[in-house]
Amino acid sequence: MKKVELLSPAGTLEKLKIAFDFGADAVYGGVSHFSLRIRSGKEFSMEEFAEGIAYAHARGKKVYVTINGFPFNSQLNLLKKHILAMAKLKPDAFIVATPGVLKLAHELAPDMPIHLSTQANVMNVLDAKVYYDMGATRIITAREISLKDLKEIKKELPDLELEVFVHGSMCFAYSGRCLISTLQSGRVPNRGSCANDCRFPYEMYAANPETGTLFKLEEDDGVGTYIMNAKDLNLASHMKEILDSCVVDSVKVEGRTKTAYYAAVTAKAYRMAIDDYYEDRVNNDKYQYELQSLQNRGYTDAYLVSRPFEKHDTQSLDFSMQLGTHQVSGIVNEEGTHFLCKYKTLPNDELEIVAPLNSYVEIVDNEIGTTYERDGRTYLKLKQLLAENKKVWEEVHSGNVNPITLPTKLPAYTFLRIPSSEDMGTQPKK
């Protein structure tokens, strides 16, 4: 049986490496404003993207290039140059969103596999066949599609690869095709510059057009006003259903602008879920322990396993974002010898070690600190905060640029975390 692909976001070169180290089979990302995440496109230079592709291919992994914006006529010549430039880097596929860009990409890079973006809103056999006949090798289906409809598409088009989102932000729009941000702030979601207006709280008013009277509608206690704020998708506990269907070729995590910790934890959690499925040892609590550590808007299983009219819990009405169960306190450097502090750290704080799957953490007790295991997890306590420059600190805080010495070498990009507390942020909790 061919294993399903785990596809993770790569908003920067560092996040690309982290996603692979923590279990991703492939990543997606882009350069320039033709990618639907302008911010991450700006953070990825052509040179870094080329380095990322080389890094992936050296490890038998894949990189898919996002060229999934909706271009204007004035941009078409620039788009042609961009497609040719990206093709020279020899990625593993282009992700595009429109028939015209699909056709253009085929003309300019005829050997490049084409994946159709979720923004094309494919939900049925008819549309899937049109894009398949145009040359799409994979379709990233609409976020609103069901497993039943996926089975119908695969039955009619067995050679067409199907990719589905399993985790990350959901939009108050059809597969992300939103107009709200454009209307309110002039930032166009379908060209990569969404201002996330749907995440704001809104006050509601009633108006009488005959008299011009306007009055505010008062909400009941406990009823929030984040009326367009969709919860985050989380299908880790449904991986058995998804993989039992035998029609999904790739499961995708959203989040190119999320943190490096997000890239690591989502890759690790879904890697465990996928591998455990094929070993017939599913443990949903294990995956959710990791995913609940992330900041989120509340989680929903959305529409893949339930129809939209059956769902009544997909909106997070009470808050825009809440803390996860854990806070990142440090990230280990590529050499594995030191870490940079990401939150206030004191000697003898208990820091949980979040390392890539199947990596080795040595159990030690020396003058720098100790590592130990408890309840199947590995922890670190530092006896002293010894910086790389040999200075000893009484405490270190986020923003301190002095790498702190570890008592033993840890895998590159290992994260250190502690349980969250109420005073760690200003975001309202549910």
TrEMBL record:
The keyword Glycoprotein does not apply. GO terms for biological process: proteolysis. It comes from the Bacteria. The keyword Protease applies. One of its GO terms (molecular function) is peptidase activity. Keywords: Hydrolase, Protease. Belongs to the peptidase U32 family. This is U32 family peptidase. It comes from Candidatus Sulfurimonas baltica.
